[in-house]
Amino acid sequence: MTTTALDMVPPGTRCRVIALDVGYGINRRLMQMGLVPGSEVKVLDNSGRGPLVIEVRGVEIALSRGIAKKILVEVLK
Amino acid sequence: MVVTTGKNSGREREIVVGVIGQPNVGKSTLFNVLTGEISHVANWPGTTVERKEGVREYKGKIIRFVDLPGIYGLSASTTEEVIARKYIVEEKPDLVLVLVDSTAVERTMYLAIQVLELTPKVVIALTKSDLTHSLGIHIHVDRLESKLSVPVVPVSAIKGYGLRELLDAIIDVAEGRRCRREPIRVNYGSFLESTISDVERVLSKSALSRKYPLRWLAIRLLEGDPELEKELELLGEDEVVHGVRRIRESLARTYGRELMELFVAQRFKFIDSLLGDVVVRVEKKARRYEELSLTELATALLDRLIQHPLMGPVVSFISLLILFSLIFAVNTGFPFNVLLSYLGFSELAELIEEYSISGLLGLGFTYLSTLLEPLLKTCLGPQVTSLIVDGVIPGVGAILSFLPLIMLISLLIATLEDSGLAPRFAISFHNFFSRFGLSGRAIYPFMIGLGCNLPAVLASRTALEEEERRQLIVSVPFIPCQARLVVILAFVTTYIKNPLGQALALLSLYAISFLVALLTSILTRRVVYRRKEPPELVIELPPIHRPSGKVLWWLTWDYSKHFLRKAGIIIVGLSIVTWMLLSYGPEGYGVGIEKTYGALLGKLLAPVISVLYGLDAEKAWKVGFALLHGFIAKEAFLEATSLLYGGVSIDEALRALGFTLPSLMAFLVFFTLYVPCLPTIAVIYQESRSVRLTLSVILYMIGIGLVASQLVYLVLASLTFLYS
Asked: Is the CB of B72 inside 8 Å of chain A's CB atoms?
């Protein structure tokens, strides 16, 4: 089990959110979109530059790297 | 016999429904299908968020729908969330209609649960239910209904089914036949539950517990809710605030994270157990490429291309460029008219211009003026005639010639938004724009600005946050629009003969303008709003699909109507004011151009212009006068100059001004930056609703125009000196 920041996760990988260390407003927005500690996300697109695309609760969401960097996840097999 | 007054009986029968849903659940579509016509548009008090209402008559009842902003939850962390919550609590609608997307129930049910925790009078509409079958989703509506004890109605706004059932359910709930008595109780687990009880005890004496359900209030305060804390403080109940805060913070310490995280996670757990035997997803076999239909294949291919790390930005940029060029071409012939006339096919260019929408409209208005003029003159005299022919008709003409452009651009934007393409394109540009304090969505106003600044300012609505929107409103007007290009080209071709030099001059003017626009944006963010970080991108990417024609038309008309109503009045008014400036002087009406107030203003500006660009007084006031004209419409600068030289050709008139190369370039920099046209100013006001911001934009632009123009002059003059 590896723990890492979301922006380091390669595309096609499933992971579980451990903690979110983002600002107040964005924290609330992300949580209400289903991105809470414990929830499962799948990284769909992450080219190393520019925003990445993840799937949370069946919905695709684009996140800028600044945010992804502050989301701690554990990679699931 | 008892006679009730019309107003009272109307109010008795009217059912008020607040319509709420997360973004992308299809709220505007359903709202339009339910109400047909939007009857009332205003702003929510103290905000720039629009409030729309629509009325539907059904079975002898009048149902008034109030469209609440698209939000993810009721945490009150954004203006929109505060608006929605205030509406439900303070305006007390008969019921709240919550839209849940049947293709993403697991996510979009969150808002419904939050509303149900606040009020029991709820109807849930499962939107897009025409799509579930093909996605392999089956929803047991009856099970969901009995678990929640509120009506749940699957609907499809596009196919038009489920609407009668929905309206029936609304009337049933409004009349108390089918509804819960109490808000829903989500079980937050023994630990949080005992804390909730503790806080309820603290709150039971508070005046706020009469306004909100006690349990809801306790939960919200435990999650952390600055809005509610403010309300408590206003009531003088600081002790309650501190009491709850102590409980919250000590728990957060024990847990090592914010309590809200626990509450939200529990709420989603509740949703998962609620939906366990309600939503059945049949895993569709992955199909091979041969089995996909042509549209599916194209969609998949497009999706891959746009998101490709290297190809994405290129494909996005080229697609948007082609789309917007086509729209401008239909409207005014731009950019093909400019290109063709530059290549020497001026007859072809004129033909394209003549048969473009604005060419035909212009023709119509000239015809109208010539038709009316003799008629009016005999009945009303020359002054009133001139007011109508030179003041009112051009003003109305300006509005009407902007209208098709605005409609076409809003149609394109609506298409991109409704199909799910807009956010995907925006991702490609995020890296670039984030350097200047903007998000990738800034690509839309910036690209539109190249054709016309006015719809570009309107497109600032695409911004993610209020600060970004204001940044766009103040920076987009610097982008050289088509009208400015016409003037620039006239000057450049008159003064510079070498094609390479012409191209270089043109390119450097565009580069300077874009640089100024981008720097203005980042400066506004850093200095005015004191925000260091760029707007963070958190956007949903709804599946790409074919947009519905009906929806596109509603969105387009909505946008355009707004422009006609708000900016229209300002444009006609200001166009009459400028007519007065250009036809009256201290000696009255009909004194000749040189003695009008406009000319006096030009002469007032003359000393500055003459110092800046080395022109003598006689030429300087003419430039000042023409610049005033350019404020009404940029291309009017050319006409005005030729008029001042007694109607000679534009080439000759421009040559007569006698610029040198450095002063020409410096002047063109000023001309591009100094101020957008009058209709754009009207729209800046319409969108910002701030006189201060509008005036600041004008002053700032003139200031920057002067500074940039002087810098260019100094650089070029010293270069010329060195090489001569």
From this structure: yes
